[in-house]
Amino acid sequence: MSTSLPLVFDAPKRGRPPRHLADLTDDELKSAVIALGLPGFRANQLARHYYGRLDADAARMTDLPAAVRPQVAEELFPRLMTPVRHLDCDGGTTRKTLWRLHDGTLLESVLMRYPDRATLCISSQAGCGMACPFCATGQGGLDRNLSTAEIVDQVRAAAAAMRDGDVAGGPGRLSNVVFMGMGEPLANYKRVVAAVRRITSPAPGGLGISQRSVTVSTVGLAPAIRKLADEGLSVTLAVSLHTPDDELRDTLVPVNNRWSVQEVLDAARYYADKTGRRVSIEYALIRDVNDQPWRADLLGKKLHRALGPLVHVNLIPLNPTPGSEWDASPKPAQDEFVRRVIAQGVSCTVRDTRGQEIAAACGQLAAEER
Ligand code: SAH
């Protein structure tokens, strides 16, 4: 009997994450602080701890009266995520973290350090409902949306790791954030936009990362792309196109059955016009599936027509998921693809692939853990 007890307590309870300081706007934080019976100026002080000093542990906030620290900890700094594992590769410059959330949900983020920048790849949902067949996260389905604070706290933790020299290369600064981890960011729209604001607002109201250094990657939810264009943010939009024709895209990116290639490209054009930002097109090259020369020509033509100079193609060699019969394209096919896209007047490069040996393709680590 008693041996089954821990199982009861360990059972994942998928549920609403507790409210956290990073869920709140400046005004909401002030109200929350006053509701705790504290003077309003404490709001600014708490925000400085979290966004400025990257500290989420109220017990260490010694400029707060000791008597109120436990209550502040409980009400504004509940523990959102606990690291389950860190995996390092590429000489310690790529670091993947598997986190467990309060309800047992798993999520991943990956920090990649380059000579001139450090980029964090974050998750916007636990799991994903978009069901793209080549993607490990897509195979598992959607667990739940992440809260704003669960998104922001991935960034805070990585910024602290960079500052503290936990990543090879010595202390540094987290400069870029990409929403290319688990989940479809535009399917968790409100929380993602709120998280972008917290990540990019200057301290003490936010983490102070430049909007231009944040990339939101989407399967192509056309109405949400247009809505994002109207937010007055200048984040980079990446669209996971993966093929220029509806027939194949209906299977590679099933949401294409709802919004076609043309509708997605029209929305991307609207985004580019509204923000003045070049749109990135993501294209995972899959051997004998979407890597034919004619598809490269068609891709280049369609993109040039829809977006002119306001587009860049990122080719991603497929990172095969366990059990899949699909594979990356051979190097000569990849080179020919790039050449043909460029010949249509569209810039195109191959994404540097990091973290191959730590299962870094979207969702692979969480899938293994499950
Ligand atoms: N849902 C969003 C963001 C998450 S995935 C989107 O689809 O854009 C980030 C990028 O990784 C997407 O372009 C996605 O299609 C791609 N991706 C997923 N699994 C992959 C794999 N096994 N190999 C290469 N790219 C993959």
UniProtKB/TrEMBL annotation:
Gene3D superfamilies membership: 1.10.150.530, Aldolase class I
Primary site of residence: cytoplasm
Location(s), subcellular: Cytoplasm
Binding site for [4Fe-4S] cluster: C128, C132, C135
Required cofactor names: [4Fe-4S] cluster
Database matches in SUPFAM superfamilies: Radical SAM enzymes (SSF102114)
EC numbers: 2.1.1.192
Reactions mediated catalytically: adenosine(37) in tRNA + 2 reduced [2Fe-2S]-[ferredoxin] + 2 S-adenosyl-L-methionine = 2-methyladenosine(37) in tRNA + 5'-deoxyadenosine + L-methionine + 2 oxidized [2Fe-2S]-[ferredoxin] + S-adenosyl-L-homocysteine; adenosine(2503) in 23S rRNA + 2 reduced [2Fe-2S]-[ferredoxin] + 2 S-adenosyl-L-methionine = 2-methyladenosine(2503) in 23S rRNA + 5'-deoxyadenosine + L-methionine + 2 oxidized [2Fe-2S]-[ferredoxin] + S-adenosyl-L-homocysteine
Keywords: 4Fe-4S, Cytoplasm, Disulfide bond, Iron, Iron-sulfur, Metal-binding, Methyltransferase, rRNA processing, S-adenosyl-L-methionine, Transferase, tRNA processing
The keyword Glycosyltransferase belongs to this UniProt entry's keyword annotation: no
Class of the enzyme per the UniProt entry, highest EC level: transferase
Residues at which S-adenosyl-L-methionine binds: G183, E184, S217, S240, L241, H242, N319
Cofactor note text: Binds 1 [4Fe-4S] cluster. The cluster is coordinated with 3 cysteines and an exchangeable S-adenosyl-L-methionine.
Active site per the UniProt annotation: E108, C362
Protein purpose: Specifically methylates position 2 of adenine 2503 in 23S rRNA and position 2 of adenine 37 in tRNAs.
NCBIfam families the record matches: rRNA_mod_RlmN (TIGR00048)
Misc remark: Reaction proceeds by a ping-pong mechanism involving intermediate methylation of a conserved cysteine residue.
Protein family membership: Belongs to the radical SAM superfamily. RlmN family.
Name of the featured protein: Probable dual-specificity RNA methyltransferase RlmN
Organism: Tsukamurella soli
Lineage: Bacteria, Bacillati, Actinomycetota, Actinomycetes, Mycobacteriales
Gene that encodes the chain: rlmN
